[in-house]
Amino acid sequence: MAIALSLCLATLAAWMALAPAATAATAFSPSFSAVNSTVAPAGLPPQAVFVNPQSFAVLGTNGSFRESATASTLNPTNTSAPFFQVFHPDFVTKILGLSASIRVVASNPGFAFAHEAPIWVPATDEVFFASNGGGALGFSDIDHNNQVAKISLGEVARAADASRSKTTPLNVTVTSLALPETVQMTNGGTGPFHGQLVLVNSGRGSLPSNLVLVDPASPSNTTVLLDNFYGRQFNSLNDVKIHKQTGLIYFTDSVYGYLNQFRSGPLLQPFVYLFDPTTGRVKVAADGFDKPNGIALSEDGKTAFVSDTGIINGVFGVNQTEPSTIYQYDIDQKSGVLTNRRVFAFVDSGVPDGIQIDAQGNVYSGCGDGVHVWDATGTLLGKFFLNTSGANMAFAGKGRLVIMAETAVYLAEVEAGGFDLSYP
Ligand SMILES: *[C@@H]1O[C@H](CO)[C@@H](O)[C@H](O)[C@H]1NC(C)=O
Ligand SMILES: *[C@@H]1O[C@H](CO)[C@@H](O)[C@H](O)[C@H]1NC(C)=O
Ligand SMILES: *[C@@H]1O[C@H](CO)[C@@H](O)[C@H](O)[C@H]1NC(C)=O
Ligand SMILES: *[C@@H]1O[C@H](CO)[C@@H](O)[C@H](O)[C@H]1NC(C)=O
Ligand SMILES: *[C@@H]1O[C@H](CO)[C@@H](O)[C@H](O)[C@H]1NC(C)=O
Ligand SMILES: *[C@@H]1O[C@H](CO)[C@@H](O)[C@H](O)[C@H]1NC(C)=O
Ligand SMILES: *[C@@H]1O[C@H](CO)[C@@H](O)[C@H](O)[C@H]1NC(C)=O
């Protein structure tokens, strides 16, 4: 009893020592921001609508509630996609600016040619990307590879000028790449790394999943950097980023090759891996996932974001109680592993697929109804609302966000910009 009491007193003393910190925490504000987030921003760009979160905080007894993340979207406006849903004034002041615009720049209603792996190559001002591997309108399966292609942003600019409009849909040339057999079911990309595209490929049938470098210039010379973990094939690599300070390559390995029926059952846990291309060494950087998917590393190399798209089970359907979540980590500066996992954001629509970070540290993810944007504290600022899935996106320098939306590529012209993802 006495021991219990002294422990109790010690706990109380420790708690009292912490009291000043608790007082400081009263600065905690539900808006997480200096501005009053319930007040509409002073101005809005033409394609934006302010949606005060208070306006749908209570749907009421007979409210029309959504039953799932995938069957419907939230759009409490009368505006048709594409447009900007502004949930917080900072979306306008910090991301969009007052003359933002968004439109389709390439489309093919019959082919999901623009799914993931967006890579901006500054030298030629082109954006590379991959078609959907194994999913709807992907025209790829265990017997058929998917496609890597590119568009020219110079051609987009010329077509935009000719259109004399900021909203008219454009349709620029999509040029596919002739890649070797080693590149199967590309799903993730980043770089350039020493001038080369970095692609992660899911593999197809018994053809291994791998990490490759591809020359962005014709004839697309390709070098395989890694296709196994100490002799064991990966399940189906999904996404990749380069750590700016060290040139180490982080990639996710998920189970979508199996769930979309072009790979056999998983034989490894779904991990985030860390690869050193200068030594060939590979190790696990994080575990504990359902389906790790997108990954992004902060510009200072200290923080990582990994999405878990657990609810999407490919041909086995959707399970609303699995993760649809972006986790945030510290990157251990000695070992490179991801530590201190915490929830950054859970998304209301579809899953958070690819993740990108802008030069101000805001976080973007491709979700079921378009691209969602959070500030560094995880407050949802707004959406590039497409009313359809936009799996990934890439900043092409400052002011241009190129969004992959399966059968279409969108260009949003905004004030925010990306940081340089290339290495060195
Ligand atoms: C924010 O503005 C609204 C509308 O003017 C006001 O009712 C509310 O009290 C303000 N909240 C804060 C925290 O200032
Ligand atoms: C909800 O709907 C029921 C049945 O139509 C109706 O009787 C009731 O008044 C409605 N409640 C509200 C708050 O609108
Ligand atoms: C949408 O339009 C309807 C019908 O004109 C109107 O009653 C409603 O208030 C509008 N909703 C919004 C959010 O503007
Ligand atoms: C979203 O898509 C659905 C289904 O195609 C359509 O009925 C609805 O009008 C669209 N909403 C907007 C805001 O574009
Ligand atoms: C855009 O051009 C491609 C290639 O010519 C064509 O397949 C596609 O249907 C066009 N998109 C639209 C919306 O017409
Ligand atoms: C691409 O590969 C071919 C065949 O190996 C080689 O002749 C050519 O020099 C390479 N091109 C570049 C730019 O590396
Ligand atoms: C959905 O996922 C949860 C959590 O993993 C699991 O307990 C449940 O059995 C799953 N439901 C179905 C229908 O598979």
From TrEMBL:
Assigned keywords, A-Z: Signal
UniProt signal peptide: 1-24
The SMP-30/Gluconolactonase/LRE-like region domain, residue ranges: 168-399
Gene3D superfamilies: TolB, C-terminal domain
InterPro entries to which the protein is assigned, alphabetical: 6-blade_b-propeller_TolB-like (IPR011042), Oryzine_lactonohydrolase (IPR052988), SGL (IPR013658)
PANTHER family: PUTATIVE (AFU_ORTHOLOGUE AFUA_1G08990)-RELATED, SMP-30_GLUCONOLACTONASE_LRE-LIKE REGION DOMAIN-CONTAINING PROTEIN-RELATED
Protein's recorded name: SMP-30/Gluconolactonase/LRE-like region domain-containing protein
